[in-house]
């Protein structure tokens, strides 16, 4: 037998191409390293004698299956290998294959009508598989199967008993008439929406335990392997994957006499709270704990560990396991990796010693996810049959911020500072000054620092607000082009002074934009508050708005070549990065959309319209009672629950990016009944592994397909339903500049609903707002979406 085993090392770089020359190799173990896919991914296709292939955590662009019609394989692991496309048919027809792990990839398509009954372990967790037949499930009903976290609309399971050795958590979008409970629904949150908790305490692997007056819930269910367990109160659950006897095959392996997913030790534990550390839960590959009914907000998560397995006596010889053995795994919380190559013994300075790891996390959608993941490193096999992640306890409690007096004073001071900046800016820009200067005096003072405008001057510049000078209609009034006496072009935004919203937007815009200066933010030149009018004067933008360029005449659209579109995406991202991370005043714009992105003569993007902008402090939870923005661009958590963070702007950026690449309006594009909005179409194409099909056909072949795919994947990352999984804008800039790669951008569930369902969901916010206006308080009537958006594009309701 010829085999090659380099498991658990730190080799990096591309998988060596010379492996393809090992024609007689039978077993190949490469997991537990840091490899990348080579340019040519056919390294393994010529290895026809392979019986075992283990690969995991391979980085690189999603690619097709690296094995072609190999009938010798008995064990195949390609876990978290950036694979895309469908699973090859030969996998299911193979009569030799008994172990298959393709979890945590981007595989799409259907499961076949038939699978060999020799397949005893099938792990397909975390893909985008979306269909199957009754025959496939019936044929492998006695196998250990994990198809959790996929995109099946429903599953044709024969009966409820099939779920005993199966993990179906978060597998499906529709669980009607299925023999599984509500937890099979994608993005399952809480069975009781009215009952929410602010804490969670679990004694992993043990029974109910009282520690310092805190009661830890029992977690002594013996189910492991491919299973999901929901606690009796339905507040939490765990999802496990793997088989100790099969996850780590090889020449040195030996199946343990009994696969154990729980372990306990009752003596020689001298640490405090020993009852918590005397039991553990173990999983061979993946162990996820979920909190389902938590109140939204900031939490402290404590993970408790103690290595109590290693020193236990085994067998008749009563020998102790070597102290050189290592248990190594990774930890993610809310999708973010918080521990890499975590070693309990090293952290605790020995076995039978406790160690607690503490993390600050944010919970939204009432759901917490803790993921313990074995990446193939550490000791396994006959010397250490119970390998993989291990945990003793979990304690979670919500942080109730009681702001100290100094912090409260700081917040009040910040609010007063904004008000003072607004008033000072209004005064410096001449909004309160007296009329009476002659034209020659005005001409000499125009566009100087601290210059001012009066009503007579602006009327002259706009030809008394002539319809011929009108550029468009905004949410609070019209926008006009003007030419000053010195020949400088300006844009004048006319707000109604009779509207309380108009006055609020006027003051907010002046106070915000006057304090912010950046190449990708529009420049405010001045203002005027005379003759019962509120006027804002901006620099003139020669190419109008992004909406005008994308959805306007063919002549304008023809100028939006691929490099220009990339430049626009990068400009918007840089502007938002400044607002969120670089400015002294951290700002959430709240209304990012094509009509509020302006383009200068060189098509440089500048963000405008700060009437709804809000100050944002990361450590403070923001819930707003009045929703401001535009339907189709608002993040779900903001539109539905008023939960506002800078990730709301990230979501809007993702939608706008899809529009820039596709040339389609996100809210009015309706290709068929199945794909209602642009986001739906993007999601379907992502499922099929063909997202690049979304690129604007008018570009022909004049674009980089690799760059387009990266930008589209980035847009999908930005529109993830979970705010915590969306990237910060600084990371978006790095990705667009090619300095960073997309990592861990798992796809979300479908984004939009049909019109009637959306109208019902939005009913609480509808009020009298009209869909398609530039900005609106509340959320619009979705049933009028198609017609209203058409009107919006015709009017080009933005300015400059």
Describe it for me?
The radius of gyration is 30 Å and the shape is globular. Residues about 250-260, about 315-320, about 435-450 and about 750-800 have low confidence and may be disordered. The chain has an eight-stranded parallel beta sheet with strand order 1-3-5-6-8-10-12-13, with no helix packed on it. A hairpin with a 5-residue loop joins strand 35 (about 595-600) and strand 36. The protein is built from 18 helices and 39 strands. It has four domains: about 5-180, Ribonuclease Inhibitor (Leucine-rich repeat, LRR (right-handed beta-alpha superhelix), Alpha-Beta Horseshoe), CATH 3.80.10.10; about 200-400, Galactose-binding lectin (Jelly Rolls), CATH 2.60.120; about 405-540, Phosphorylase Kinase, domain 1 (2-Layer Sandwich), CATH 3.30.200; about 545-795, Transferase(Phosphotransferase) domain 1 (Transferase(Phosphotransferase), domain 1), CATH 1.10.510. With about 800 residues, it is α/β, with parallel strands linked by helices.
List the helices and strands and how they pair.
Elements: E1 3-5, E2 12-14, E3 27-29, E4 34-36, E5 52-56, E6 75-79, E7 84-85, H1 89-93, E8 99-101, E9 106-110, E10 121-123, E11 128-131, H2 134-139, E12 144-146, E13 166-167, E14 199-204, E15 209-211, E16 214-219, E17 227-230, E18 236-241, E19 262-264, H3 274-277, E20 279-282, E21 286-291, E22 297-306, E23 328-333, E24 336-343, H4 344-348, E25 354-363, E26 368-373, E27 390-391, E28 393-398, H5 405-428, H6 439-445, H7 455-461, E29 470-474, E30 477-483, E31 489-496, H8 500-514, E32 524-528, E33 533-539, H9 546-551, H10 554-557, H11 562-582, E34 587-588, E35 597-599, E36 605-607, E37 614-615, E38 628-629, H12 636-641, H13 647-662, H14 678-687, H15 705-718, H16 729-736, H17 755-766, E39 776-777, H18 785-795
Parallel strand pairs: 1-3, 2-4, 3-5, 5-6, 6-8, 7-9, 8-10, 9-11, 10-12, 12-13, 14-16
Antiparallel strand pairs: 14-28, 15-16, 17-18, 18-21, 19-20, 20-27, 21-26, 22-25, 22-28, 23-24, 23-26, 29-30, 30-31, 31-33, 32-33, 34-37, 35-36, 38-39
